[in-house]
Design brief:
alpha/beta, binds 1,3-dihydroxyacetonephosphate, 233 residues, 38% helix, TIM Barrel
Amino acid sequence: MIVALNNKSNLTKQEFITYQQQLQQINTTHKLILCPTTLYLEDVTISNVELGAQNVSCTNPGAYTGETAAIQLKSLEVSYCIVGHSERRKYQQETNEQIREKIIQLLKEKITPILCIGESQDERKQQLEQQVITKQLEEATTNLSEEDKKKIIIAYEPIWSIGTGVIPTNEEIESMVNTIKQHFPSNKVLYGGSANVENIDIIKQVSNIDGYLLGGLSLHPEQLQIFLEKLKN
Ligand code: 13P
C-alpha cells in the first residue's frame, strides 16, 4: 500500500527535526511518502520515506514571486507532488485548469502528481458526488496523453471528511473509487479524510483502494506505526 503523509502547514523547524527523528523509527513494508511544507523539503534526511511536495507552480521557472517550479522540486529529489487539494481549491481558488497545468509541469520533471478530488457535503446531499469527481478528473487531465494519465496517483478525499472525524461508509468509498477506476483503470487510487487508528480496521475492508493520504495522523508517528501495522492484517 501507498501511505502519503500530508503535513499541511504544520510544524516549526524545531518540531520538524523531532518529528523526523520519530518518523525514522517507523518500520513498515508499505511505501511512505512524506509531504512536508516546501520549506523543509531539503531537510528530509531519513531513508524510510520518499519525498513529496504539497504544491507546485503552474508555470516554468521565472518571474513568479513566491512560487516553486517543478524543476526546483526535482532538484531537491522530490518524487511526488500533491495537486488539487480541496484546501487549495477553497482558499487559493485553484481551478481544474490550473491543476492541469501543474500536472503538466510535474510530468515534465518526472514527478508523480497525486491528484486530489472529492465532493462537498452539499454536493453529496444533492447526489452530485459522482458527477463532481468525474468533472474534476476530466478537466484536470484534458488533452494529456493516455500514457501521461497513467502516471497520476488519484486521491479520493471527500471534503466533508477532511479533519472532521466523519468518514464515508465503505460502500460509499468503494463506489467512488469504482467511478475513478472506470476512467483510470490502471491508476493507483488513495483514500483520504479522517483515516485513523480507530477506523482503519473498517476502511481497510474496502477492496479497491491502493493506499491512503493522511493529514492529522501524519503528525503523530507513534499512531502512524499502529495504523501501518493494522494495514498489514
Ligand atoms: P485528515 O486526515 O486530517 O482528515 O486530512 C486528510 C487530508 O486532507 C490529506 O490530504
